[in-house]
């Protein structure tokens, strides 16, 4: 049986989830800059005052949203977006979650004008990058840290460039891209200098 | 000596340039969605009515702005961002114009919610892509069109991914990235199948 404290914590978590879900819908629709706390409260069927009990401001909502997107990307990276699977994911432009991708584009656009969001993006990227390096190290323990960082950077460029290009129609053959991305992966994992 | 018509055309062009410049500043500051025609008019020191004599709505201003960014990118591609120079530009994350890049990120974020802007982005990408393919064809006339499209797509992914990653600190050595991007360029321009 749950104690009163546990029940309160569960309610608290659920309310936060609802605010984040409402935030995501508002941000997708209007962008961070145009979405107001009032609009967000209406979307969550709460008062603005209630929202402030959970998040001190809009930036705090964005921060929690980004944290959750990165959490789910880390799981995806572990399970699906391994170096072995990347050529296929890139060539066929497979997205983990289209809403997440659109929101991260929004984060990028906002980061270029808002230093608070720029810091969030830098931290999110740093978490992803460190995690990806650790994953590569597990499979290729003889690689130098410097070489691993180079590989991960190129993969990050390819993954983020592909996410951006998903906004426009694909103009090259996915089959040919697949072959090329496989060759590129081979290049990355065979060029370690001694 | 200029005729009255020529003088009027020159004034018309200058006014349009001023509105685009004001639009760029407003869009950088607030994003497309939040920037209003009133804010834009104030920034250009014009009345809203005057703005409407040049552009039917905010989307028309965005469209002209995107057209001009692509025009300058095509010149850049021709003169600087050739296949030969790309490894260096990518490894050191060199930007043509940081404002242009931030505005194109904003175009991407807006494209994911506004079909008019999505169409603009698709047309802009199509112009860039066609032009890049023609450039490659000039240097490698024996390459198949299919192979050229594959190369250009990979380059586009690398250029756009690098632009996005410029928002966060670089974590790999530019010198090592340079070597890798050179190998990748060699791979692209040597893997044409007969």
From TrEMBL, chains A, B:
This is TetR family transcriptional regulator. GO terms for molecular function: DNA-binding transcription factor activity; transcription cis-regulatory region binding. PANTHER family: HTH-TYPE TRANSCRIPTIONAL REGULATOR RUTR, TRANSCRIPTIONAL REGULATORY PROTEIN. Residues 36-55 bind DNA. It comes from Erwinia typographi. Residues 13-73 form the HTH tetR-type domain. It comes from the Bacteria. The keyword Acyltransferase does not apply. Keywords: DNA-binding. The keyword GTP-binding does not apply. Pfam families: TetR_N.
């Amino acid at each position: 049986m749950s104690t009163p404290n546990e029940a309160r914590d569960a309610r608290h978590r659920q309310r936060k989830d609802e605010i984040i879900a409402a935030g995501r819908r508002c941000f997708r629709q209007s962008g961070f800059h145009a979405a107001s706390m009032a609009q967000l409260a209406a979307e969550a069927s709460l008062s603005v005052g209630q929202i402030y009990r959970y998040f001190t401001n809009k930036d705090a909502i964005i921060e929690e949203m980004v944290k959750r997107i990165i959490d789910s990307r880390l799981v995806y990276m572990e399970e699906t977006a391994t170096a072995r699977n990347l050529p296929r994911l890139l060539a066929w432009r497979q997205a983990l979650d289209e809403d997440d991708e659109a929101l991260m584009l929004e984060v990028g656009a906002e980061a270029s004008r808002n230093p608070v969001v720029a810091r969030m993006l830098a931290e999110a990227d740093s978490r992803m990058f460190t995690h990806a390096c650790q994953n590569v190290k597990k499979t290729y323990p003889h690689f130098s840290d410097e070489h691993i960082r180079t590989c991960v950077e190129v993969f990050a460029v390819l993954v983020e460039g592909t996410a951006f290009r998903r906004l426009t129609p694909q103009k090259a053959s996915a089959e040919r891209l697949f072959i090329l991305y496989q060759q590129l992966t081979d290049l990355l994992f065979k060029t370690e200098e001694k």
